[in-house]
Amino acid sequence: MFVWVYARNRQVAFRLLCLCMALIVAFTVRSSVSANKWLGFVSDTGSILAVIFLSAFLMVFPKSITANQNSSSVTRYLAWISKIYLALISGSGIFIIAAFFNSYLLQAKVADWLSFSDLSYFLVTLTGILGLIIYSYQRSTVHWERQQMSLFVAGVILSAAPLLFFTVIPRILHLPFFNGRITTITLFLFPLALGYSILRYQILVFDTYVRKTVAALFGMIFLAIVVYVVVALGNIFLIGYMPQHRNLYELVIVGSATFLSPLVWRLAKVLTENVFFREVVQYRRFLQEPMVISDETLEVSDAASLITSAAIYTFDTAQVCVFVFDESSGQYRLYPGLTDGAGDASRRVLLTSLLHTFQLPFTARESPIDYLDTFLPAIQRLQLARRPLLLSEAIRSAENKQTGLKRFLTVESPLGEEDWLLVPIRAQGKMIGIMVLGERGHQPYAGPDLEIAQSLTARFSMMLEMARLYARATQHTNLLNNLYSISTMPNSAFNTLKDAANTYAVIAADATASAAEMWLYDEQASALQLAVATGHGPRLTAYSRLTGIQESDWTTRFVQGQPSLPVKEETDGALPGCLPEQPLHPFAWLPLRKKGRSIGVLVVTYGRPHYFFKEEMRALEMFASQCLAVLENVQMTIALRAAYERQKELDQLKDQFIMTASHELRTPLTTVLGYIELLDQYHERLEVESRSEFIDKARRGCDELSLLVSNIMDASRVNMDAAAVRLRPIPLARAVSHVLEILEATLTGEQRTVQTQIAEDLYVKADDVPLRQVLLNIMSNALKYSPSGSSIILSAIQKQEVIIITVQDHGFGVPLEDQQRLFERFVRLERDMNSPVRGAGLGLFICRRLLEAMGGRIWLESSGQPGEGSTFSFALPVVSKNPLIETETVQLPV
Asked: Which parts of 738-846 are beta strand (E)?
């Protein structure tokens, strides 16, 4: 009944059920037969039906011999003979049953011919059964079918051996024998053995215990036979010595039995394993064969290849995949990797089907998926299992969990022939890998396969663990070598802080095979600014500026896990508070800070699942420390370089000032000295008009010298921040009118006209004196560098929050290449150095500094073509009409 419920092959289960029912009827009634002829009839009928059902059973077990598909002509011929044989013994059996029924019904004596026919029938059918057993065994092409037939024969031997050796043979030899009712007790083992042979490859556990039980039963039967033979031989050959030497007789019998018992027990065990469980012996022989390892240190791919080769050789299947746990990604990755060659076609088919069963795509982002995530329910169940699991067991949900005996049997699998075997590879109490055994013909995986698979993985587990540890050490070494490959580069190789940040970010990205970002700290704004983002991987955030930096953000953090999944709530405290959004990828947050001085943050992000080793965290922290030291040195180098350049600039300005001052001061001084010498030598000879003219010209030279010295003093006062600017609303038209009054004599003498376009209601936020000085300098330049008689346009317009004042002349213009430096100190155009126009190159510099102090700016527009002139413009903040009188003091910048 047990086989009827759980057997996959329903045809085999039905015929076995009929056979068992017939045997039960036959032996139950036979043991209670006395003089009742009808009970004898029922017993004989049960016996005849039993041999018919046994023959029918052997025709479909372990494989049907009547199937003609894809068979040779000889096989089809033998199949027809088997069908005819079954029909003949069935018809003959029914005929004999009918003849017995007729005899018992007429209460007549059973005819001799009927008794002879009955014995002949059993002789023929038993011979046919023996032939079917031999034919089925020879016809079996795979070892598991032969194994089932061997188990069937073992059941026959176990159940019939006591009856044969203790009752039948002794009676034939006229030796002492046991009662048949006692020796037939072991016949109950026949249906048990037959049922186990059918369910052999459906039972997932207890295979070892079954083998030990069968070996023990054979040992006891063999031991009983040996003891019986020893006693029988003693009675035959030592019967004459027994009355006089009884003690010696008993000693010889007991000693012989004791001496032979261990040998017989061992022989029974060996015969049981080699005859009835040969597949287990074959598996063990495969596993015990030495495998040559050519290198002391194996790569993970090499160790996985050895396991794959051993599994292919042991289980006779080309579909074997070995997944090894990668602690850095938290995944079980396929080793060795798939190639495009034909040799990996079977593995590719298995991997594709496996991913399809797990409802995973075969490719992601145009790259093949060759890994299994640890969060898959099937992988988690395999980690907790104590034995290998069929794929159907691993993917079964908790609601469909099997109960009772179904936990240990495979009945109907939803995967059909794709119910592969998942074997955990364990080392030091953890699952370091998974071996997946795929299709091997039509043979399912069951108890013996599970045991041998565990033995195979146990044999190679330590080798695989050593390969993993070696790969981990190699990975750490490579990481250190790549990270510190930049240590030999001098700090002088970096021109800017961004160059150093970019170099270290590239090194970090290449060493970790991920993305790296360098954020530089803006101390004034208390914000992190993205300076560099490089590598292959995701960005930490879409923002390029992080504000709200807190003290806790300057703590090293390693956020690990799976990508594309938000960080779990219990780890929210591990995230920097300055991040505006929750990252979806693992990352390392490495602040660059020393003794309260912050430079920035180095961030390494991973586009794949990543878990940090302690060694990896230490290496990244050390790399961040090195990066911090280099950035500090680069900052110092840049500061020293800037100071040096500034010093050079000051030296150049000094030289330029000396050259300009000597050139500009020499002409008026020469003029003054010349006229003074003329007055000294020819004072009495000169007329009064000539003396007055010489004195006026000497006075104008002194005025020119005074103006040059005054400009130099003004520039020095602005640069040294010696004055303060007081900002208040100033009517622009009044300031312009005051300047024009100062220049009125010059305008009249040169016959100039000034076109003013300034509204009376325009007020600017400025200081009255600096504003008039700016206007005076710009207007003076317009007069000096434009021909006499040309006009000057002075206008002002309001644009949003500023007023733009413009002074346009029609002079020589300014070349484009000189326009940017014209507002620096001591800068004059080369064409003006030898011209009659005097100057120290400080007027526009003073204008720029005064306007910057008042919150404005100045610029120049000129095509550089002679006659088109130049347009100088400056902007100042606007104030409303009729403003309230407010004064604001502003310190001049240095």
From this structure: 754-757, 763-766, 792-799, 802-808
Q: Report residue 435: phi and psi, to 5°.
A: -105, 125
Locate all alpha helices (DSSP H) within 397-552, ordered by sequence.
447-483, 497-512
Which of 34 and 603 is assigned the larger pLDDT? Answer: 603
Name the residue among 43, 57, 61, 41 with its Cα closest to residue 89: 57
Q: In what order do the strands lie in the sheet with 597-605?
A: 545-546, 527-535, 515-522, 597-605, 587-594, 557-559
Burial track 274-307 (b if 16+ CB lie within 10 A, e otherwise): eebbebbeebeebbeeeeeeeeeebebbbbbebb
Distance in angstroms (rounded) separating the CA atoms of residues 755 and 658: 38
Amino acid (one-letter) located at 58: L
Q: How far apart are CA 421 and CA 283, in angstroms?
A: 16
Q: What is the maximal distance between C-alpha atoms in the chain?
A: 195
For residues 120 and 179, what is the distance between their CA atoms, to the nearest angstrom? 26
Instruction: Answer yes or no: is pLDDT of 892 > 50.
Output: no
* 262 Cα distance to chain centroid: 58
- Are 576 and 558 spatial neighbours (Cβ–Cβ below 8 Å)? no
Cβ-contact 132, 57 below 8 angstroms = no
Across the chain, mean pLDDT equals: 77
Q: Where are the beta strands (DSSP E) in 584-657?
A: 587-594, 597-605
Structure tokens at 273: 């394993």
Residue with tokens 């030495």: 290
Place of tokens 């400080």: 842
- Torsion, CA 544, CA 548, CA 550, CA 553, rounded to 10: -20
For residue 165 the two structure tokens come to 């050796």
d(CA 754, CA 794): 7
Provide the token pair at 479: 């990481």
Q: DSSP 3-state assignment of 893?
A: coil
Residue labelled with tokens 């990828």: 585
pLDDT of residue 591: 93
Q: Of 136, 166, 161, nearest to 61 (Cα)? A: 136
Q: Which among 824, 851, 832, 849 is positioned nearest to 657, based on CA atoms? A: 824
CB 24 within 8 A of CB 50: no
Spell out a b/e string for 225-264, using b for 16 or more CB atoms within 10 Å of the CB, else e. bbbbebeeebeeeeeeeeeeeeeebeeebeebbeebbeeb
Which whole number is the average pLDDT over 560-567?
60
Alpha helices in 174-321 (DSSP H): 180-183, 189-199, 207-237, 246-271, 278-288, 300-315
The 10s digit of each residue's pLDDT in 185-212 is 776 677 777 777 776 666 655 566 677 7
Does the model's pTM come out above 0.85?
Answer: no
| SS3 of residue 683 by DSSP | coil
